[in-house]
Design brief:
Chain lengths: ~110, ~110
């Protein structure tokens, strides 16, 4: 059983399209995250959700909208895709409380052409 | 956020211990030292974390200096599958604002 799973693994789309990436965790964690890894391999947090509520929203364009239907799922919807959105997007989750560890999905490689 | 300094790359022979250093001289009193690694084309993987005492688990050992300004991750018997980028991250846990720097690219060779 995959603890944190993302779909799709690869996504190629044209500029201007709208796309979604899905994430599910079966660990019973309360908190979920989206991270972006750019072409230079830097990993940066985008969003953090705790029990379906947004708690961190880093400087991310409004075209990116996370949606958490329940605490096991955190989907990422991207409107009007741009070339610069090409990156690997990682979903992660962690249990309640401080000093815990985060579990990451395998990533979704998004390529905008 | 505490800043970290790690070597850009290191090599290690398979079966030998890999010792990965990290300087985090600006770490706060309530921040732990977390270590993650990222194997090529995979998501980051948690390894170990500690506050001030040395820690050991099934993957690695973590040695933290008494002044907490630096630490060393030890993989006691490195294998080819340990080839990855290793990140040292001071923080208070979870996935909240894990600040991944450039890390150390560890290459384990025969």
């Amino acid at each position: 059983d995959t603890a944190v799973s993302q779909t799709p693994k690869y996504l190629v789309t044209q500029m201007g399209n709208d796309k979604s990436i899905k994430c599910e965790q079966n660990l019973g964690h309360d908190t979920m995250y989206w991270y972006k890894q750019d072409s230079k391999k830097f990993l940066k947090i985008m969003f953090s959700y705790n029990n379906k509520e947004l708690i961190i929203n880093e400087t991310v364009p409004n075209r990116f909208s996370p949606k958490s239907p329940d605490k096991a799922h955190l989907n990422l919807h991207i409107n009007s895709l741009e070339l610069g959105d090409s990156a690997v997007y990682f979903c992660a989750s962690s249990p309640r409380g401080q000093y815990t560890e985060a579990f990451f999905g395998q990533g979704t490689r998004l390529t905008v052409v | 956020d505490a800043k970290t300094t790690q070597p850009t790359s290191m090599d290690c022979a398979e079966g030998r211990a890999a010792n990965l250093p990290c300087n985090h001289s600006t770490i706060s009193g309530n921040e732990y030292v977390y270590w993650y690694r990222q194997i090529h084309s995979q998501g980051p993987q948690y390894i170990i974390h500690g506050l001030k005492n040395n820690e050991t688990n099934e993957m690695a050992s973590l040695i933290i200096t008494e002044d907490r300004k630096s630490s060393t991750l030890i993989l006691p018997h490195a294998t080819l599958r340990d080839t990855a980028v290793y990140y040292c991250i001071p923080g208070t846990g979870g996935g909240n604002k894990l600040t991944f720097g450039t890390g150390t690219q560890l290459k384990v060779e025969l």
